[in-house]
Write the structure tokens for this entry.
Amino acid sequence: MHGSERHDACGEESCGVCGTGEHAHEHGGNAKLIIPAGGVLLLLGLYLEFFTQQKLLSQLLFLAVVAVAGRGIIRSGVASALQRKLNINFLITLAAVGAFLTGHGEEGAAVVYLFFIAEYLEEYASARAKRSIAELMKLAPEKATVKRNGEEVEVHVHAVEVGDVVVVKPGDRIPLDGVVVSGASSVNQAPITGESMPVPKREGDEVYAGTINLEGYLEIRVSRRSEETLLSKIVKLVEQAQREKSRTEAFIDRFARYYTPAVIVLAVLVSTLPPLLFDQPFREWVYRGLVLLVISCPCALAISTPVSMVSAITSAARNGVLIKGGSYIEEIKHARVVVFDKTGTLTTGMPEVTDVVALNGTGEAELLRIAASLEAKARHPLARAIVAAAEQRGVPLAEVSEFRALPGRGIEGEIQGKRYFVGSGLFLKERGLSPPEELVSRLEREGKSVVMVSSDGTVIGVIALRDRLRDSALETVRELKRRGIRVVMLTGDNRSAAKAVAATLGVDEYHAELLPQDKVRIVEELLRRYEHVVMVGDGVNDAPALAKAHVGIAMGAIGSDVAIESADIALMEDDLSRITYLLHLSEKTMSVVRQNVAASILIKGSFAVLAFPGYITLWLAVAVGDMGLSLAVILNALRIGRVS
């Protein structure tokens, strides 16, 4: 279905589901007719020119080639001259006119025809880099099955309101963001997050438009309209990022503004000075000036950086990383310091049991059974961690009676007629008990939270818990340090907990017990000392520090609008390995940019030198120095898409 038909189907001018709102360049629609037609006319003209000596007819055919392939080029060139903003099209127009006036109509036609093909190939190849976003957009179905008045009704996604319940069968794509209200299944979230493994979903879990329901039946209560889905936001952000220029792109744009007029002046001097000063053949030197004009067209140089940045941004989107502009890709490569928030970034923010120490004749399994049975009736994170530890070790829970919670201190209850207390050291001291001070001090120095269990006036055991490190945290820190990047950890947590995590990970520097404004102050200090600073946080309480750093990277953006909006780069999943992926992507992208710029300057410069003695013809200048070089630059940029 064509873009216009998709828009007509829903009546929206710029539909977040039906399309991206982009329109193809005019070359795209007519090129499949213009290229063969222009080619036939050019070949026929060349045959008449060189084999039948029918000069007039051949010149008419060459003019026809220009009329067919050069309308847009000439129109753009003339408009740029009238606006005093000379562009590449003006150079080609000038070269073609000069070729005809000097009796080289075949080369004037070849210049226009080959340049038309170069522009078409440039657009086609560049579109390949952006196509993944259009493909991503198509993942969201246009229709949704909604439960209304006890019946299942199929409607366009624009007709679905927040609060409606949509039905998604096995194998179907989820049409809108929402929460599962019935059913269970596994969902392939790769289009959004880049993760390869399916994610289990049950009642209460969030699901996202464009993801695939694999095997179960789901009923989903819609939480966002079609134009507000996470998928729509991703597409809009990536399209916006593609339009933003990096420092290298901005420099090349400024360079091109002065370069084009300078080339025209040089070509005029080449055409006129030798005949006027040294009595050289005027026609021959005008032709060489025209060749210089064509060779000097900065097409490849102009596209060398933007096409590389577009390729990198779309590649990152496929890998679950949203980058808001090419400047951030450029900046990451220069990072000298990476600052991590601790809780929720280097750690999961969810505690886990690390030590179960039984005392006074109680076995470890029995201690865990008692604590977990009582904690199963509580709600706080430590309670969930203790219950989870019992489940993992296969420890069955016991019946609890006369349960009572004392907020901020602990819980108590009876198990098989015996009363137990679970809580902090202060909770036990209030009951006249003496906690094992040496054991507790050692565990707390290791950054662990300590829960004690007592009965009949005796402490029967201690359970220690600590915030769990993310799976990829240690490897990520090691890789950053291997690259010579300083790693700094910031946290609002207590100094003991911070010290323990810092020692485990081997970070270079850590700061504890910080408020959000303290994190900003430390980032400012690091900027003064190291200049290039990247900050990684959860995007909520770290937002001020993320904004202050050169590049702010937010974790877990799949569930947080704040994370997407506050950071320069958003990782859709809580996967720290994406930090090293970003460094690799930045290095690869900037390497390709350097290759493209160097190739453009070297080849163009070589051709320009060879143009003076007359070794380069007009058609060769376009076919190799312009069309061939531009295509090579684009194909080189597309290699960035293979970074993973």
Notes: The chain is about 55% helix and 20% strand.
